[in-house]
């Protein structure tokens, strides 16, 4: 039985192994990783999927400042064991993360990812069009969603910068 829950205190070891298997070492070169490096995920906004006791999926949200629009979240990385690809585990994790973020009062979420995949959740390139990521990033993969009724990202300008708590 597949279950979704907040990341547990001891999930980080299996989480890192999963990310290594699914994404490989190239994940450390991504622009999003620059914003995550040496930071903790946003409080209460890291999720995992388990099949029985096996960790099969992960997603985290990170505190960032989105230029002149202020506080936002950055989603990623989203990773699911390859044998569960297409099973809905990734979507379940994204929905869990977005619902929890909205419930916690966050106003927007940004990511760098496949536009076709993330469109189903409401992500679009337009709200992120005036924002920049540190380092190289693919503009057409840089997307955002406004949570709730506030259109906080339209017209936003500037560079994303990490604001989350530092890891010890």
From TrEMBL:
Matches recorded under InterPro entries: Acyl_CoA_acyltransferase, GNAT_dom
Domain of life: Bacteria
Gene3D superfamilies: 3.40.630.30
The N-acetyltransferase domain, residue ranges: 2-148
The keyword Transferase is annotated on this UniProt entry: yes
Keyword Cytoplasm belongs to the record: no
Gene Ontology molecular function, alphabetical: acyltransferase activity, transferring groups other than amino-acyl groups
Pfam family, one: Acetyltransf_7
Protein keywords: Transferase
Name the record gives this protein: Acetyltransferase
Annotated source species: Thalassospira profundimaris
